[in-house]
Design goal:
Blueprint lengths: L1 H8 L21 H6 L25 H5 L6 E7 L2 H12 L5 H15 L8 E4 L4 H7 L3 H13 L8 E3 L11 H8 L3 E3 L10 E8 L3 H12 L5 E8 L5
Parallel strand pairs: 1-6, 2-5, 5-6
Antiparallel strand pairs: 3-4
The chain binds zinc ion (ZN) (2 copies).
């Protein structure tokens, strides 16, 4: 009843186009956006989960052929473009923390579909630096991880992996610059919590994978078992 009244006063809006969604419809995403948003589906890189061009015979993208990827396998929900890019911007910088509720559900669904839930012992969100967290008020990846953890009943630990270096934003940096930027950026508070565990890292954007790879390398070095990642969005192999 309270929800119903709140919906009348503050009608639910689509997280992508911000238009009001009629009460009888699905929350979070309007009919129109559902048709135009690019979900990652079809042929994807078997390592990082990036969309591959349909007519290509390869199973792995160029980045994953060229570079050592320390994680075992990755998945992504949306292609990072247009409305998705704008939505993630509002989620991170526009104070729209509540998007996590809906996005976390989409991500949980993806994990179920890919049958990943039985493999995972622990969920770890990619951390942001404490200064950035103070400024923003929350870590968007942690908000997503909280929802997934609750939905799938898998433990989450948001304090074992920390960002000790205040890194520059990765956008606009070359591949080598990104890698250097991430060098020694992360630290593990203790190694017992991750020992021999299968870990799922949660992030918002995957481009070259420098962040995910840096964390995966550290986790593997400290005896985590398998490392997977799930990210809200990812680029295409052929962009
Ligand atoms: Zn919409
Ligand atoms: Zn790949």
């Amino acid at each position: 009843m309270i929800d119903f009244l709140l919906d009348l006063i503050y009608p639910p809006r689509c997280i992508f186009c911000e238009d009001i969604i009629p009460i009888e419809e699905e929350r979070a995403i309007c009919k129109n956006c559902k048709n135009i948003i690019s979900f990652v589906k079809g042929k994807v890189c078997q390592k990082c989960g990036k969309l591959l061009e349909d007519d290509m015979s390869k199973d792995v993208c160029i980045d994953c052929i060229k570079n050592t990827q320390y994680y075992d396998k990755g998945l992504a929900l949306f292609v990072y473009e247009g409305l998705v890019r704008d939505m993630i911007y509002r989620f991170k910088y526009g104070g729209h923390k509540e998007y996590a509720k809906y996005l976390g559900e989409f991500l949980s669904e993806k994990i179920r579909k890919e049958r990943l839930e039985e493999k995972i012992d622990l969920i770890i969100p990619i951390p942001i630096h404490s200064n950035r967290r103070k400024k923003r008020g929350y870590n968007q990846c942690e908000e997503l991880a909280k929802v997934i953890s609750k939905k799938l009943n898998i433990p989450m630990n948001a304090s074992v992996l920390i960002r000790k270096k205040e890194t520059k934003p990765q956008s606009g940096l070359s591949f080598t610059q990104r890698k250097n930027n991430m060098k020694d950026a992360f630290e593990l508070k203790n190694t017992f919590d991750i020992y021999h565990k299968n870990i799922l890292l949660i992030d918002d954007i995957y481009t070259t994978g420098a962040t995910i790879n840096s964390c995966s390398k550290l986790l593997k070095k400290k005896n985590a078992n398998e490392v997977y990642f799930l990210t809200l969005s990812i680029g295409r192999d052929f962009d």
